[in-house]
Write the structure tokens for this entry.
Amino acid sequence: MKTIIPESWEIPIQIRERFGDSAGRQRAMFADGHLLLVLHQLPAQNSRNRQARILWRAPSAEWTWTTNGSTNDLLRKHIAGFTERAELLEIDLQKANCAADYFELLQSIGPLHRTSRNLHAALQQAREMVPDDREIIAARDAASEVERAFELLHQDAKNGLEFTAAEKAEIQSSKAYEMAVSAHRLNILAALFFPITAISSIFGMNIHSGLETVPGSWMFWGILGGGFFTGVLLMLVIKKGPETTIPTNRKGGKLAGKTPEKNIGKRVKPAKVKRIKEDSVRYTASYVSD
């Protein structure tokens, strides 16, 4: 049966028979001193396809892979690509300043995070199958640091997206509060002149009420003063606002804080949130043996 493993590889038949038309997930297989690693290359953005990279370790500790090029330090070369991508994403994360930037970063980091996690698991399996190979031990440790780097990038991008959304919501809430305060002031102003407007409309009608023959101007000033007095009373009623019930706890005590009606008409500025920039060095993959 033809598989994706090169025919020139002299590997045990029980390993070759475990492959079909595709490589499948990242894993390690071992039989008769032969170790076979199925790893995935760097995933492309917005792509569900995964390109496999198969590495074979013969009993003589010689490595071979399905990718063209030198066969020296194969595991190091494979992990170095993930390390470089993590450094580039770190730079993009520092430049992100809006929700679209953080969302695009999450779209890029997600597949890399999953691939690096499975890479670390596959190398851990290989470490248990060939416990004396120092190169596998160093690659396993480097893959662990790569996985942590992508995990931190994913968490930071997620926090940045959530902070941006919360910041936008806070700004919208502040604008809505300013509009409510402006509408409240307009209602107070309208309440002051509403009685005068109503009285002017009534006496502006072309009908005889009998007040036209009253001598002197005291009638005009009396009606004007009464209208303004009524407007002031109406304004005070509107400014007072509805009564609210003060919340209490289970023991019946009043909860701390001011009631909403005491803050009507007062401009409350939201607390400024400062972005915190980490000065610490992020974890990056280093290829050292223990």
